[in-house]
Amino acid sequence: MATQDWSEHIILVELTDDPDFSDELNALYERLEKDSAKGKNVVLNFSKVKFMNSSNISLLLKVRKILTDNNRKLLLCEISVQVWGVFLLTGLDAIFNVAEDTPSALAALQM
After folding, report:
1. What is the tally of structural domains in the chain?
2. Contact, 110 vs 103, CB < 8 A?
3. What's the pTM value of the predicted model, to 2 decimals?
């Protein structure tokens, strides 16, 4: 997982496909639980993700909850057609904020 502190207030995560996807989201969740990362917004780049299962969805919702509980934002970007289909079928498209690409997501968080 390529996780970087893009700025003082934004964490950028470039997710990879399973089996690492779950580990990456768990690591992000654990980081967000720590006080040092609670004030940060998150951008999740899905460009390398080709498949999502129910476990992945559960972890995404868990990350979203900790961020919203701390009044922080989560933006997803570069979602493939296959993964976007999962979002549409499960109704996640109505829950998550999505940007077309990483620069757009980062710009949206800075406004």
Report:
1. 1
2. no
3. 0.91
